[in-house]
Design a protein that fits this description.
single chain, 377 residues, mainly alpha, two-stranded antiparallel ribbon, 19 helices, 2 strands
Amino acid sequence: MREVLRGARTARGWSQERLVREIDGYARQHLLDVASVASLRVYVSEWENGKRAISKRYAAILRRLLGITDEELFAERSTPTQLPLAGGYDELVNRIDSARNVSLTMVQTFMDQTELLRTVDRQMGAASLVDQMTGHLATLEDALTFAVLPDTRRPVARALAGAATLAAWQALDAGAVERAWRHYELGKRAAQEANEPMYLVHAMAEQAYVLCDAGRPGLAVDLVRDAQQAGGSRLSPRLQAWLHAAEAEICAKAGMPDDCRRSLDAAAACLPAGLEARDPDMLSIFLNEGHLARWRGNALASLGDDEAVSSLYAALDAIDPTFIRATSGLRCDLAQAHLARGELDQAQEHLRQARLLASRTGSVRHRRRIEQLTERL
Protein backbone atom coordinates (compact mmCIF):
# COMPACT_ATOMS: atom_id res chain seq x y z
CA MET A 1 0.00 0.00 0.00
CA ARG A 2 2.64 2.52 1.03
CA GLU A 3 4.76 1.97 -2.08
CA VAL A 4 1.76 2.36 -4.38
CA LEU A 5 0.59 5.57 -2.73
CA ARG A 6 4.05 7.10 -2.73
CA GLY A 7 4.63 6.03 -6.33
CA ALA A 8 1.31 7.44 -7.56
CA ARG A 9 2.01 10.71 -5.76
CA THR A 10 5.56 11.16 -7.04
CA ALA A 11 4.54 10.15 -10.59
CA ARG A 12 2.49 13.35 -10.65
CA GLY A 13 5.35 15.37 -9.22
CA TRP A 14 3.43 15.99 -6.00
CA SER A 15 5.04 16.40 -2.63
CA GLN A 16 3.28 15.10 0.47
CA GLU A 17 2.24 18.69 1.15
CA ARG A 18 0.69 18.96 -2.33
CA LEU A 19 -1.27 15.74 -1.75
CA VAL A 20 -2.53 17.13 1.56
CA ARG A 21 -3.71 20.31 -0.21
CA GLU A 22 -5.38 18.28 -2.95
CA ILE A 23 -7.25 16.13 -0.41
CA ASP A 24 -8.37 19.21 1.52
CA GLY A 25 -9.41 21.03 -1.67
CA TYR A 26 -11.33 18.03 -3.00
CA ALA A 27 -13.13 17.63 0.31
CA ARG A 28 -14.12 21.30 0.37
CA GLN A 29 -15.33 21.20 -3.22
CA HIS A 30 -17.48 18.11 -2.62
CA LEU A 31 -18.57 19.03 0.93
CA LEU A 32 -16.87 16.02 2.49
CA ASP A 33 -15.84 15.74 6.12
CA VAL A 34 -12.08 15.18 6.46
CA ALA A 35 -9.46 15.88 9.08
CA SER A 36 -7.73 19.25 9.45
CA VAL A 37 -4.77 20.08 7.23
CA ALA A 38 -2.41 19.50 10.14
CA SER A 39 -3.89 16.05 10.77
CA LEU A 40 -3.87 15.21 7.05
CA ARG A 41 -0.11 15.85 7.01
CA VAL A 42 0.26 13.21 9.70
CA TYR A 43 -2.11 10.83 7.90
CA VAL A 44 -0.26 11.03 4.58
CA SER A 45 3.08 10.46 6.25
CA GLU A 46 1.74 7.50 8.23
CA TRP A 47 -0.02 6.01 5.17
CA GLU A 48 3.22 6.08 3.23
CA ASN A 49 5.20 4.65 6.16
CA GLY A 50 2.71 1.85 6.72
CA LYS A 51 1.79 3.12 10.18
CA ARG A 52 -1.87 3.89 9.43
CA ALA A 53 -4.43 2.04 7.33
CA ILE A 54 -6.31 4.05 4.69
CA SER A 55 -10.01 4.16 5.52
CA LYS A 56 -12.70 3.76 2.87
CA ARG A 57 -13.48 7.48 3.08
CA TYR A 58 -9.94 8.53 2.23
CA ALA A 59 -9.49 5.70 -0.28
CA ALA A 60 -12.41 7.12 -2.28
CA ILE A 61 -10.72 10.53 -2.38
CA LEU A 62 -7.30 9.11 -3.28
CA ARG A 63 -8.80 7.09 -6.13
CA ARG A 64 -10.20 10.23 -7.71
CA LEU A 65 -7.08 12.33 -7.15
CA LEU A 66 -4.46 9.78 -8.19
CA GLY A 67 -6.35 7.66 -10.71
CA ILE A 68 -5.70 4.35 -8.95
CA THR A 69 -8.04 1.52 -8.06
CA ASP A 70 -8.61 -0.02 -4.63
CA GLU A 71 -6.82 -3.15 -5.83
CA GLU A 72 -3.74 -1.09 -6.62
CA LEU A 73 -4.01 1.14 -3.56
CA PHE A 74 -4.21 -1.73 -1.12
CA ALA A 75 -1.91 -4.00 -3.18
CA GLU A 76 -4.41 -6.82 -3.12
CA ARG A 77 -5.77 -9.01 -5.88
CA SER A 78 -9.49 -9.30 -5.66
CA THR A 79 -10.94 -12.79 -6.05
CA PRO A 80 -14.05 -13.49 -8.11
CA THR A 81 -17.28 -13.82 -6.24
CA GLN A 82 -18.04 -17.50 -5.74
CA LEU A 83 -21.55 -18.84 -5.97
CA PRO A 84 -22.50 -21.04 -3.00
CA LEU A 85 -21.86 -24.73 -3.55
CA ALA A 86 -25.44 -25.50 -2.58
CA GLY A 87 -28.61 -23.45 -2.77
CA GLY A 88 -27.21 -20.95 -5.30
CA TYR A 89 -29.12 -22.07 -8.36
CA ASP A 90 -31.96 -19.59 -7.91
CA GLU A 91 -29.55 -16.68 -7.84
CA LEU A 92 -27.65 -18.04 -10.85
CA VAL A 93 -30.83 -18.50 -12.90
CA ASN A 94 -32.02 -15.01 -11.96
CA ARG A 95 -28.77 -13.51 -13.22
CA ILE A 96 -28.93 -15.52 -16.43
CA ASP A 97 -32.51 -14.37 -16.99
CA SER A 98 -31.49 -10.78 -16.35
CA ALA A 99 -28.63 -11.05 -18.83
CA ARG A 100 -30.97 -12.55 -21.43
CA ASN A 101 -33.14 -9.46 -21.11
CA VAL A 102 -30.29 -7.13 -22.05
CA SER A 103 -31.77 -5.50 -25.13
CA LEU A 104 -30.09 -3.64 -27.96
CA THR A 105 -31.32 -0.46 -26.29
CA MET A 106 -29.43 -1.40 -23.14
CA VAL A 107 -26.30 -2.16 -25.15
CA GLN A 108 -26.59 1.27 -26.75
CA THR A 109 -26.79 2.73 -23.24
CA PHE A 110 -23.50 0.98 -22.43
CA MET A 111 -21.97 2.45 -25.58
CA ASP A 112 -23.28 5.92 -24.71
CA GLN A 113 -21.72 5.63 -21.25
CA THR A 114 -18.37 4.75 -22.83
CA GLU A 115 -18.71 7.77 -25.13
CA LEU A 116 -19.39 10.06 -22.18
CA LEU A 117 -16.34 8.73 -20.35
CA ARG A 118 -14.25 9.23 -23.50
CA THR A 119 -15.36 12.85 -23.79
CA VAL A 120 -14.64 13.65 -20.13
CA ASP A 121 -11.27 11.90 -20.36
CA ARG A 122 -10.30 13.90 -23.45
CA GLN A 123 -11.04 17.20 -21.74
CA MET A 124 -10.25 16.55 -18.07
CA GLY A 125 -7.96 13.52 -17.98
CA ALA A 126 -8.25 9.95 -16.79
CA ALA A 127 -7.41 10.21 -13.08
CA SER A 128 -10.82 11.52 -12.03
CA LEU A 129 -12.64 8.73 -13.88
CA VAL A 130 -11.15 5.68 -12.20
CA ASP A 131 -14.28 4.91 -10.14
CA GLN A 132 -16.69 5.38 -13.04
CA MET A 133 -14.53 3.37 -15.44
CA THR A 134 -14.06 0.53 -12.96
CA GLY A 135 -17.80 0.32 -12.33
CA HIS A 136 -18.62 0.53 -16.04
CA LEU A 137 -16.30 -2.36 -16.90
CA ALA A 138 -17.62 -4.43 -13.99
CA THR A 139 -21.21 -3.97 -15.22
CA LEU A 140 -20.30 -5.00 -18.76
CA GLU A 141 -18.24 -8.01 -17.62
CA ASP A 142 -21.09 -9.12 -15.40
CA ALA A 143 -23.59 -8.84 -18.26
CA LEU A 144 -21.32 -10.88 -20.52
CA THR A 145 -20.56 -13.51 -17.86
CA PHE A 146 -24.21 -14.44 -17.42
CA ALA A 147 -25.34 -14.06 -21.02
CA VAL A 148 -25.78 -17.50 -22.57
CA LEU A 149 -26.68 -17.35 -26.26
CA PRO A 150 -24.45 -15.76 -28.93
CA ASP A 151 -27.09 -13.29 -30.10
CA THR A 152 -27.05 -11.76 -26.62
CA ARG A 153 -23.35 -12.14 -25.96
CA ARG A 154 -21.99 -10.56 -29.14
CA PRO A 155 -23.43 -7.03 -28.69
CA VAL A 156 -22.37 -6.97 -25.04
CA ALA A 157 -18.89 -8.23 -25.97
CA ARG A 158 -18.62 -5.46 -28.57
CA ALA A 159 -19.51 -2.84 -25.98
CA LEU A 160 -17.01 -4.37 -23.55
CA ALA A 161 -14.25 -4.35 -26.18
CA GLY A 162 -14.65 -0.62 -26.72
CA ALA A 163 -14.88 0.19 -23.02
CA ALA A 164 -11.90 -1.99 -22.06
CA THR A 165 -9.68 -0.41 -24.71
CA LEU A 166 -10.62 3.07 -23.51
CA ALA A 167 -9.97 2.03 -19.91
CA ALA A 168 -6.57 0.66 -20.95
CA TRP A 169 -5.53 3.93 -22.58
CA GLN A 170 -6.68 5.85 -19.52
CA ALA A 171 -4.67 3.53 -17.25
CA LEU A 172 -1.58 3.97 -19.42
CA ASP A 173 -2.00 7.75 -19.24
CA ALA A 174 -2.30 7.53 -15.44
CA GLY A 175 0.88 5.46 -15.17
CA ALA A 176 -0.89 2.20 -14.21
CA VAL A 177 0.95 0.05 -16.76
CA GLU A 178 -0.09 -3.39 -15.55
CA ARG A 179 -3.73 -2.35 -15.38
CA ALA A 180 -3.45 -1.00 -18.93
CA TRP A 181 -2.03 -4.28 -20.20
CA ARG A 182 -4.77 -6.35 -18.53
CA HIS A 183 -7.49 -4.09 -19.93
CA TYR A 184 -6.07 -4.45 -23.43
CA GLU A 185 -6.12 -8.23 -23.03
CA LEU A 186 -9.74 -8.01 -21.87
CA GLY A 187 -10.58 -5.80 -24.86
CA LYS A 188 -8.98 -8.26 -27.29
CA ARG A 189 -10.85 -11.23 -25.84
CA ALA A 190 -14.14 -9.36 -25.99
CA ALA A 191 -13.50 -8.27 -29.59
CA GLN A 192 -12.75 -11.86 -30.60
CA GLU A 193 -15.98 -13.11 -29.03
CA ALA A 194 -17.93 -10.33 -30.70
CA ASN A 195 -16.28 -11.18 -34.04
CA GLU A 196 -15.32 -7.52 -34.41
CA PRO A 197 -11.95 -7.36 -36.19
CA MET A 198 -11.79 -3.58 -36.06
CA TYR A 199 -12.06 -3.56 -32.28
CA LEU A 200 -9.46 -6.34 -32.03
CA VAL A 201 -7.01 -4.53 -34.30
CA HIS A 202 -7.45 -1.24 -32.44
CA ALA A 203 -6.76 -2.88 -29.07
CA MET A 204 -3.67 -4.67 -30.44
CA ALA A 205 -2.22 -1.49 -31.96
CA GLU A 206 -2.79 0.58 -28.82
CA GLN A 207 -1.25 -2.19 -26.73
CA ALA A 208 1.89 -1.74 -28.82
CA TYR A 209 2.32 1.65 -27.15
CA VAL A 210 2.70 -0.07 -23.79
CA LEU A 211 5.63 -2.04 -25.22
CA CYS A 212 7.06 1.10 -26.79
CA ASP A 213 6.88 3.05 -23.51
CA ALA A 214 8.48 0.07 -21.76
CA GLY A 215 11.54 0.33 -24.01
CA ARG A 216 10.63 -2.44 -26.47
CA PRO A 217 9.84 -0.49 -29.67
CA GLY A 218 10.99 -3.34 -31.93
CA LEU A 219 8.47 -5.70 -30.38
CA ALA A 220 5.87 -2.92 -30.57
CA VAL A 221 6.47 -2.62 -34.32
CA ASP A 222 5.89 -6.36 -34.69
CA LEU A 223 2.63 -6.14 -32.74
CA VAL A 224 1.18 -3.24 -34.72
CA ARG A 225 2.07 -5.06 -37.96
CA ASP A 226 0.40 -8.20 -36.66
CA ALA A 227 -2.65 -6.04 -36.01
CA GLN A 228 -2.66 -4.89 -39.63
CA GLN A 229 -2.47 -8.49 -40.85
CA ALA A 230 -5.23 -9.56 -38.45
CA GLY A 231 -7.53 -6.90 -39.86
CA GLY A 232 -6.73 -7.49 -43.51
CA SER A 233 -9.33 -6.05 -45.85
CA ARG A 234 -12.03 -5.86 -43.16
CA LEU A 235 -10.91 -2.48 -41.83
CA SER A 236 -12.33 0.92 -42.66
CA PRO A 237 -10.05 3.28 -44.64
CA ARG A 238 -9.72 5.65 -41.67
CA LEU A 239 -8.71 2.82 -39.33
CA GLN A 240 -6.18 1.62 -41.92
CA ALA A 241 -4.71 5.12 -42.03
CA TRP A 242 -4.64 5.22 -38.21
CA LEU A 243 -2.75 1.92 -38.11
CA HIS A 244 -0.16 3.13 -40.61
CA ALA A 245 0.29 6.35 -38.62
CA ALA A 246 0.74 4.39 -35.39
CA GLU A 247 3.25 2.15 -37.16
CA ALA A 248 5.15 5.24 -38.36
CA GLU A 249 5.37 6.70 -34.85
CA ILE A 250 6.62 3.44 -33.35
CA CYS A 251 9.07 2.83 -36.22
CA ALA A 252 10.53 6.28 -35.56
CA LYS A 253 11.10 5.36 -31.92
CA ALA A 254 12.60 2.04 -33.01
CA GLY A 255 15.14 3.84 -35.19
CA MET A 256 13.62 2.70 -38.50
CA PRO A 257 13.46 5.94 -40.55
CA ASP A 258 12.73 4.39 -43.94
CA ASP A 259 9.90 2.26 -42.54
CA CYS A 260 8.58 5.32 -40.73
CA ARG A 261 8.36 7.41 -43.90
CA ARG A 262 6.78 4.57 -45.88
CA SER A 263 4.13 4.19 -43.20
CA LEU A 264 3.41 7.93 -43.20
CA ASP A 265 2.93 7.84 -46.97
CA ALA A 266 0.64 4.80 -46.62
CA ALA A 267 -1.42 6.61 -43.95
CA ALA A 268 -1.87 9.64 -46.23
CA ALA A 269 -2.90 7.36 -49.10
CA CYS A 270 -5.57 5.57 -47.02
CA LEU A 271 -7.03 8.60 -45.26
CA PRO A 272 -10.42 9.72 -46.60
CA ALA A 273 -10.50 13.31 -47.85
CA GLY A 274 -12.32 16.07 -46.00
CA LEU A 275 -12.46 17.64 -42.56
CA GLU A 276 -14.41 14.81 -40.93
CA ALA A 277 -12.23 13.17 -38.28
CA ARG A 278 -14.39 10.51 -36.67
CA ASP A 279 -14.75 7.03 -38.08
CA PRO A 280 -18.47 6.12 -38.10
CA ASP A 281 -17.55 2.43 -37.91
CA MET A 282 -15.04 2.88 -35.08
CA LEU A 283 -15.99 5.77 -32.83
CA SER A 284 -12.72 5.71 -30.90
CA ILE A 285 -10.78 6.71 -34.05
CA PHE A 286 -10.29 10.42 -34.72
CA LEU A 287 -8.15 11.10 -37.79
CA ASN A 288 -8.19 13.71 -40.54
CA GLU A 289 -5.46 15.63 -42.34
CA GLY A 290 -4.91 17.86 -39.32
CA HIS A 291 -4.46 14.92 -36.97
CA LEU A 292 -2.20 13.19 -39.46
CA ALA A 293 -0.05 16.33 -39.73
CA ARG A 294 0.47 16.11 -35.97
CA TRP A 295 1.34 12.42 -36.23
CA ARG A 296 3.76 13.13 -39.09
CA GLY A 297 5.40 15.87 -37.05
CA ASN A 298 5.69 13.58 -34.03
CA ALA A 299 7.41 10.86 -36.06
CA LEU A 300 9.72 13.24 -37.89
CA ALA A 301 10.63 14.98 -34.62
CA SER A 302 11.71 11.61 -33.23
CA LEU A 303 13.92 11.21 -36.31
CA GLY A 304 15.34 14.72 -35.94
CA ASP A 305 13.92 15.72 -39.33
CA ASP A 306 13.73 19.49 -39.89
CA GLU A 307 10.35 19.12 -41.63
CA ALA A 308 8.74 18.25 -38.28
CA VAL A 309 8.34 21.86 -37.16
CA SER A 310 6.11 22.98 -40.03
CA SER A 311 3.91 19.88 -39.74
CA LEU A 312 3.50 20.37 -36.00
CA TYR A 313 2.59 24.06 -36.21
CA ALA A 314 0.01 23.20 -38.87
CA ALA A 315 -1.41 20.61 -36.48
CA LEU A 316 -1.41 23.12 -33.61
CA ASP A 317 -3.47 25.54 -35.70
CA ALA A 318 -5.97 22.80 -36.59
CA ILE A 319 -6.36 20.92 -33.30
CA ASP A 320 -9.73 20.86 -31.55
CA PRO A 321 -9.29 22.95 -28.36
CA THR A 322 -11.26 20.37 -26.35
CA PHE A 323 -8.51 17.78 -26.99
CA ILE A 324 -6.56 18.91 -23.92
CA ARG A 325 -4.37 15.84 -23.52
CA ALA A 326 -3.61 15.68 -27.25
CA THR A 327 -2.58 19.34 -27.16
CA SER A 328 -0.19 18.59 -24.34
CA GLY A 329 1.39 15.85 -26.44
CA LEU A 330 1.59 18.19 -29.43
CA ARG A 331 3.44 20.76 -27.33
CA CYS A 332 5.90 18.02 -26.34
CA ASP A 333 6.39 17.18 -30.01
CA LEU A 334 7.13 20.83 -30.79
CA ALA A 335 9.61 21.02 -27.93
CA GLN A 336 11.36 17.93 -29.26
CA ALA A 337 11.46 19.34 -32.78
CA HIS A 338 12.93 22.67 -31.60
CA LEU A 339 15.48 20.86 -29.47
CA ALA A 340 16.64 18.96 -32.56
CA ARG A 341 17.25 22.36 -34.22
CA GLY A 342 19.02 23.79 -31.16
CA GLU A 343 16.21 26.32 -30.56
CA LEU A 344 16.17 26.10 -26.80
CA ASP A 345 13.96 29.11 -26.00
CA GLN A 346 11.13 27.85 -28.19
CA ALA A 347 11.50 24.34 -26.77
CA GLN A 348 11.34 25.66 -23.23
CA GLU A 349 8.16 27.63 -23.94
CA HIS A 350 6.38 24.62 -25.45
CA LEU A 351 7.43 22.48 -22.47
CA ARG A 352 5.99 25.10 -20.13
CA GLN A 353 2.67 24.96 -21.96
CA ALA A 354 2.76 21.15 -22.05
CA ARG A 355 3.42 20.99 -18.32
CA LEU A 356 0.39 23.19 -17.59
CA LEU A 357 -1.88 21.04 -19.74
CA ALA A 358 -0.50 17.79 -18.28
CA SER A 359 -1.23 19.13 -14.80
CA ARG A 360 -4.83 19.83 -15.82
CA THR A 361 -5.37 16.27 -17.03
CA GLY A 362 -3.14 14.53 -14.47
CA SER A 363 -1.28 12.74 -17.27
CA VAL A 364 1.62 10.79 -15.78
CA ARG A 365 2.64 9.62 -19.25
CA HIS A 366 2.99 13.15 -20.59
CA ARG A 367 4.67 14.36 -17.43
CA ARG A 368 7.30 11.63 -17.82
CA ARG A 369 7.98 12.76 -21.37
CA ILE A 370 8.16 16.41 -20.31
CA GLU A 371 10.77 15.54 -17.68
CA GLN A 372 12.82 13.61 -20.24
CA LEU A 373 12.77 16.54 -22.67
CA THR A 374 13.53 19.05 -19.91
CA GLU A 375 16.72 17.16 -19.09
CA ARG A 376 17.93 17.92 -22.62
CA LEU A 377 17.66 21.70 -22.23
